[in-house]
Description:
By secondary structure, this protein is α/β, with parallel strands linked by helices.
Amino acid sequence: xxxxxxxxxxxxxxxxxxxxxxxxxxxxxxxxxxxxxxxxxxxxxxxxxxxxxxxxxxxxxxxxxxxxxxxxxxxxxxxxxxxxxxxxxxxxxxxxxxxxxxxxxxxxxxxxxxxxxxxxxxxxxxxxxxxxxxxxxxxxxxxxxxxxxxxxxxxxxxxxxxxxxxxxxxxxxxxxxxxxxxxxxxxxxxxxxxxxxxxxxxxxxxxxx
Length: 209
């Protein structure tokens, strides 16, 4: 019997994944955790074939959790299931020890394909992500999204991460408010994030905070 651990802070998401998995896979049992502490407690108690891991959970550093699982449970496969844009976060997750990445708005069929692929011992990436990585490799691109920013964009990003308002950033850099607003919009577009909280999370993943 396959044993799967679902780690997500939203109970409805855990319930939906549990029902779908146990209905679609024969001889499969799914347990639930909601942060790193509860996940680690279950991993210490039980042997899991697969962990379905969300990235954004309270009181949880996904990098630390992935590192811990990689060192203490290397036989357990990890599939990240996240709302975060795969073009920004997937490569970091794979480099940090995950074996696959899928966005939460993917189809059930794609989720089951990802699960089967990862459990079978292979890596899972979507077609779009695979193409992105190939293109970056061919063009000498970087895996750190912050390297895409200009020096001024990077400077504004660091102020935003430290919770400076646009007015405060304008005063610090001695540039017009409208210019700071434009730079903010441009850097968020380059990083493929929509809100400051996503920017902060990305900075944490790449150890910029």
